[in-house]
């Protein structure tokens, strides 16, 4: 297929229920770990067999809620569980590095919630450790594992857009007081929780920018409250990205090419539809029921299981190099705006 297609390609994503079975351990029994476990147990044959937390009580409560056999009162104990094959790291962001390295050192594969770390250097350290140990590692940027994104990937690879000239992507939400996103010690603010989605999308389409211009404003809590970024690329393409924690936005994403434009329905990072429009007005519509985490997180688990069964050490849907590019960009944005994150808990080299 080359140029504007006569019809949209079909998604190539296999049924998640057919994926090879892995034995999973959950590190960090919080909200996203609950959504991941719900989705995996309802839609795949993957087995969640253990959970670990710094609190033995929280680990035990999570295990009882989801019918998990083993609970551990530390991440080290979880990493040392001989029955666990892969650890899903769902701790607060600043703990991702330490927990992931402990699991890797124990010979476990890892799927690490986004962002994989809070800096580009942390992402590199995880990638290097996994490569040295010969285990699989990936960032759980679940958007890229969804069926709709496989269709978008095929459109990108086929040249359906012509020369891509711009990308627009944004994601903001409202959060109630007391949410961890307002805690600077947990890398609070929108960049790591929300902004990673439009930044990852933009760099997936256009690669690493060579020009970054960012502005930001503080939230009354002390963390950053809103960011706007203009990005320039060697190809001449440009991107505009916005993220914030003041209120909800449409959370749409647009790819503009000289031949065709793609507009992804909000919330663009979740299951849903999109429209591909040719410059002459022709349109192709991808229909998919809108959904949230329960309808989508199992796709990444199944894809990871397939990659590991095939002997792959990275995910083709979210290669580690892509995760590093996104976090290097986030580092550049933070440097311009003056956002500081806590020092990593581990000094392992």
Characterization of this structure:
By secondary structure, the chain is of the alpha/beta class. It has nine helices and 14 strands. It has a domain at 144-290 and 318-334: Dihydrodipicolinate Reductase, domain 2 (2-Layer Sandwich).
What gap, in angstroms, lies between the N and C termini? Answer: 46 Å
Basic shape: globular
Q: Can you tell me the CATH class of the domain at 144-290 and 318-334?
A: Alpha Beta
Q: What is the correct CATH architecture of the domain at 144-290 and 318-334? A: 2-Layer Sandwich
Order of neighbouring strands in the sheet with most strands: 8-9-10-7-11-12-13-14
State mean pLDDT (0 to 100 scale).
96
Question: SSE order in H/E notation?
Answer: EHEHEHEHEHEHEHEEEEEEEHH
* Count of separate DSSP helical elements: 9
Number of beta strands: 14
Q: Which range best describes the helical content: under 10%, 10-25%, 25-40%, 40-55%, 55-70% or over 70%?
A: 25-40%
Topology-level CATH name of the domain at 144-290 and 318-334: Dihydrodipicolinate Reductase, domain 2
Rg over CA atoms: 20 Å
What percent strand?
15-25%
Biggest sheet features: 8 strands, mixed
């Amino acid at each position: 297929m080359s140029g504007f297609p006569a019809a949209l390609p079909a998604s190539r994503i296999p049924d998640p229920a057919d994926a090879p079975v892995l034995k999973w351990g959950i590190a960090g029994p919080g909200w996203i770990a609950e959504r991941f476990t719900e989705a995996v147990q309802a839609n795949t044959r993957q087995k969640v067999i253990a959970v670990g937390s710094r609190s033995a009580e929280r680990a035990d409560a999570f295990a009882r809620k989801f019918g998990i056999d083993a609970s551990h009162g530390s991440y080290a104990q979880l990493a040392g569980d001989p029955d666990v094959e892969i650890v899903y790291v769902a701790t607060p962001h600043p703990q991702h590095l330490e927990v992931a390295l402990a699991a890797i050192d124990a010979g476990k594969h890892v799927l690490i919630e986004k962002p994989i770390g809070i800096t580009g250097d942390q992402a590199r350290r995880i990638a290097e450790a996994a490569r040295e140990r010969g285990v699989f590692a990936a960032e759980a940027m679940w958007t890229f594992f969804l069926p709709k994104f496989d269709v978008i990937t095929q459109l990108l690879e086929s040249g359906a857009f012509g020369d891509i000239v711009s990308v627009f992507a944004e994601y903001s939400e409202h959060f109630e007081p007391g949410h961890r996103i307002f805690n600077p010690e947990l890398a609070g603010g929108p960049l790591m929780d929300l902004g990673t989605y439009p930044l990852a999308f933009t760099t997936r389409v256009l690669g690493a920018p060579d020009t970054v211009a960012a502005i930001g404003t503080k939230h009354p809590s002390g963390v950053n409250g809103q960011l706007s970024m203009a990005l320039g690329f060697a190809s001449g393409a440009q991107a505009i990205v916005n993220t914030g924690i003041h209120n909800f936005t449409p959370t749409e994403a647009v790819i503009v090419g000289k031949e065709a434009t793609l507009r992804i329905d909000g919330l663009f990072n979740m299951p849903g539809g999109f429209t591909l429009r040719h410059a002459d007005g022709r349109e192709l519509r991808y229909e998919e029921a809108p959904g949230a985490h329960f309808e989508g997180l199992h796709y990444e688990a199944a894809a990871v299981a397939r990659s590991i069964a095939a002997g792959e050490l990275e995910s083709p849907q979210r290669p580690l190099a892509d995760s590093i590019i996104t976090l290097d960009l986030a580092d550049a944005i933070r440097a311009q705006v003056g956002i500081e994150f806590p020092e990593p808990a581990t000094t392992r080299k």
